[in-house]
């Protein structure tokens, strides 16, 4: 029996990379379907005679795109076309935090910015740096920095369609020659150019994936009660709230709201938190006790 990681899935076949670097094409056994086991890219598997026998427990797994066991994500955010959005960025960061995946922020298309636009975005990015996120930009691009971050890790490149994921990957790995997206002028969003997930060797024993772009994220599985834990600077201050489990909305003596008032927490981050929290609260089912008959 051999073991390895699925690096590509296509038409019912799974390419599995061994520790030696060798890649073996396999298929899933028939009982996988009966057991409702669906192997995905990133899965650690055991196989024999080109048939998958077992999928090992996952560290994490994303649904869209379907990829498992990720360590790090580069979130590609466009400066313009599509326009930079802290609301969308925070949704990515929440999504990754929920899945225990470290995030790196990469700003693309900075060459298209005016001086005033650049200054406004830099003010926002300074907040993320202060929180503790690594922030890179295409005009200060450093391949060695990204390679060092990805050393011996499985890395995903994600972001809105048209934001520049494929452009970044082409710079990191020119041999891929991935198709870059065109921007829809009517929607200000990109057309999808990458439809399957594939892991490629990168850096020192790392793997990097390109993923289909999408303009929205499904955060519906997140509990609004614990959402604040995904805003890293909130968690550090929330210990001083009057009530344990404070959601930093209407509660009195809230340390997080006090920090927003003094500027210790950025107003835009808090506003994004409130919006996401309200959306999640509206998605949660409301259970009511049935009236007893007279």
Automatic annotation (TrEMBL):
Enzyme class: hydrolase
Annotated source species: Lapidilactobacillus concavus DSM 17758
Residue ranges of every copy of the EngC GTPase domain listed in the record: 68-215
Domain of life: Bacteria
HAMAP family: GTPase_RsgA
Example of a GO biological process term: ribosomal small subunit biogenesis
Cofactor(s) needed for function: Zn(2+)
Name under which the protein is recorded: Small ribosomal subunit biogenesis GTPase RsgA
GO molecular function: GTP binding; GTPase activity; metal ion binding; rRNA binding
Subcellular localization(s) per the UniProt record: Cytoplasm
Subunit note: Monomer. Associates with 30S ribosomal subunit, binds 16S rRNA.
Protein role: One of several proteins that assist in the late maturation steps of the functional core of the 30S ribosomal subunit. Helps release RbfA from mature subunits. May play a role in the assembly of ribosomal proteins into the subunit. Circularly permuted GTPase that catalyzes slow GTP hydrolysis, GTPase activity is stimulated by the 30S ribosomal subunit.
CDD domains linked to this entry: S1_YloQ_GTPase (cd04466), YjeQ_EngC (cd01854)
Cofactor binding note of this UniProt entry: Binds 1 zinc ion per subunit.
Record-linked PANTHER family: SMALL RIBOSOMAL SUBUNIT BIOGENESIS GTPASE RSGA, SMALL RIBOSOMAL SUBUNIT BIOGENESIS GTPASE RSGA 1, MITOCHONDRIAL-RELATED
EC number in record: 3.6.1.-
Annotated positions binding Zn(2+): 241, 246, 248, 254
Xref: Pfam families: RsgA_GTPase, RsgA_N
Keyword rRNA-binding recorded: yes
Residues that hold GTP according to the record: 108-111, 159-167
Family: Belongs to the TRAFAC class YlqF/YawG GTPase family. RsgA subfamily.
InterPro entries in alphabetical order: G_CP_dom (IPR030378), NA-bd_OB-fold (IPR012340), P-loop_NTPase (IPR027417), Ribosome_biogen_GTPase_RsgA (IPR004881), RsgA_GTPase_dom (IPR010914), RsgA_N (IPR031944)
Domain CP-type G: 59-217
Keywords, sorted A to Z: Cytoplasm, GTP-binding, Hydrolase, Metal-binding, Nucleotide-binding, Ribosome biogenesis, RNA-binding, rRNA-binding, Zinc
Any one of the GO CC terms: cytoplasm
């Amino acid at each position: 029996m051999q073991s390895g990681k699925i690096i590509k899935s296509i038409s019912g076949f799974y390419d599995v990379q061994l520790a030696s670097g060798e890649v073996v094409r396999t298929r899933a056994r028939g009982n996988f379907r009966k057991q409702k086991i669906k192997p995905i890219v990133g899965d650690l598997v055991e196989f024999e005679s080109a048939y998958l026998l077992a999928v090992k427990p996952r560290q994490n797994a994303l649904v869209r795109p379907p990829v498992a066991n990720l360590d790090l994500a580069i979130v590609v955010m466009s400066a313009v076309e599509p326009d930079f959005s802290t609301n969308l960025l925070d949704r990515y960061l929440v999504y990754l935090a929920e899945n225990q995946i470290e995030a790196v922020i990469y700003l693309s298309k900075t060459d298209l910015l005016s001086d005033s636009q650049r200054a406004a975005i830099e003010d926002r990015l300074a907040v993320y740096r202060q929180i503790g996120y690594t922030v890179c930009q295409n005009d200060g691009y450093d391949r060695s920095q990204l390679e060092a971050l990805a050393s011996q890790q499985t890395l995903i490149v994600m972001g809105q369609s048209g934001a520049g994921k494929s452009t970044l990957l082409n710079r990191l790995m020119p041999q891929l020659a991935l198709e870059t997206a065109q921007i829809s002028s009517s929607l200000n969003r990109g057309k999808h150019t990458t439809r399957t997930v594939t892991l490629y060797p990168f850096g020192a024993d790392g793997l990097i994936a390109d993923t289909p772009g999408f303009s929205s994220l499904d955060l519906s599985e997140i509990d609004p009660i614990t959402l604040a834990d995904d805003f890293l600077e909130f968690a550090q201050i929330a210990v001083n709230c009057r009530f344990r489990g404070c959601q930093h909305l209407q509660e009195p003596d809230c340390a997080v709201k006090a920090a927003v008032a003094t500027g210790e927490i950025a107003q835009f981050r808090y506003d994004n938190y409130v919006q996401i929290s309200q959306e999640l609260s509206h998605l949660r089912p409301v259970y009511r006790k049935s009236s007893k008959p007279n």
